[in-house]
Amino acid sequence: MSLHISHVFGVWCAAALTLFIFSFLYKDNPFYKFAEHLFVGVSAGYTIILNYWTVIDANLIQPLILAAHGTGTHPELHGAFAAQQGDYRMWLVIPAIFGALLFTRLIPRIGWMSRLALAVIIGVYAGIKTTGFAQGDFVAQVQASLVPLWNGSIAYTVNTVVFAVGLITSLLFFFFSREHKGGLGVASRTGMYFLMVSFGAAYGYTVMSRISLLIGRFQFLLETWLGLR
Amino acid sequence: MAFGDWLVRLDRRWIFLTMGLLVLGPLIFPLSLPLHVTPPVQAFVDAVDKVPNGSTVLMSCDYDPASIPEMVPMTRTAFRHLLSKDCKVVVTVLWFGGPGLVDSVLTEVSREFPTKAYGRDWVNLGYKAGNEAVMVALGQGIVNVFPRDYRGNESNALPVMQHVRDYSSFPLLVNISAGYPGTKEWVQQVQGRFHLPMVAGVTAVSAPEYYPYLQSGQLRGLLGGMAGAAEYELSRHEKGSASRGMDAQSLGHVLVALCIVLGNVIAFGQRRRSR
To answer: If you measure CA to CA, which chain A residue comes closest to B151?
Structure first.
């Protein structure tokens, strides 16, 4: 086992910032604060530049420039407003205006205009989310819950019975129109145990995720920075 | 309960130090603990194997540097798996912190395949803001949403994009996701709506949320966290960073389990004493 310490300046910066962040585990200190503030600033700048070049420039400015010359991504069509699906030409000015309206919040006197853009965003997203949930979650999951209890295998039957009991009792746990007494009380208590098992599994996975982050940083320090081989 | 009292007063930094040493130790001196490929991971491998050689696959890498240890090993192995099948890979990113990271990972893996070229065998279309709206819009045309790739090339001009129109051009969607927008949204907006077969690699913290999709068949396979990534590497006979981290992962879990047991024993003891 030998060390091959990196000669790359960026790797040293990353290693130093990692150690600065780790130092918070001992106690809050200026090195940690420096790394934290640097991260926030760099992230904000990076987000603005990335969004400009990958969204505003690519999907708005360049198509508008082409449209001003009477063309677009479908060169066979001529005209600034000769739009078709995916090639919106000068009509892109409409979403651009809505986007610009969001910034009116910076001027209190006309700030109400930003609500027009927000209304469009909320309406579109509500529609997309509702249909997506109905198709992807509600119908598909109900369909997948209706399974035969017997397919010739005892193990399968045990599995599906546990699944059915867990599903029904967990649903009953969230039924609040009647007091949880008697049969409903037993069922909801059983449902609670199933939920607790699922919380336990979720906690185990959360631990795995957090330890993975630590492993990732240690691997970077040992392998990329110190070159331990 | 002198030991219990001592534990209650124990400075939490000793636990941090113990955890740090337990994680660091196996990374320097590996224990080679056994690892097995579980059915969800095997299903992931099988789904990718079933893709006809030479076809074009959509791969969405929806994560940022915060989830490198879990996501990057999955991305590496899945991309390597697809290139080894001569598949062409179209990559998108829906997290703003991801495109640069994803590009460096894909470039690194593609160097292992000297005959594969950027633009002909794979393309990184980069980032696009809009989350679910982007997913839905891709169904009306991939190039409409990504007129240029991450490197600034005209997407239309790239050979790999010549036969790509919309979701119907792909036999499989491989989603590597660290949260929102990610696997849940791809299932809701694309798998459900466009019936595109899909597999996913997700962070461990979000994995329990996706098992119902696996059970219902909406996901053909699932990699959960670093363990899923390590099993995927094992099934492909690779020794990547996820496999190397699994010993440390196991010891870390032992410490957490021990802390939970000790904490409960102390809590029960204190309750009994107070009665």
So the answer is: A54
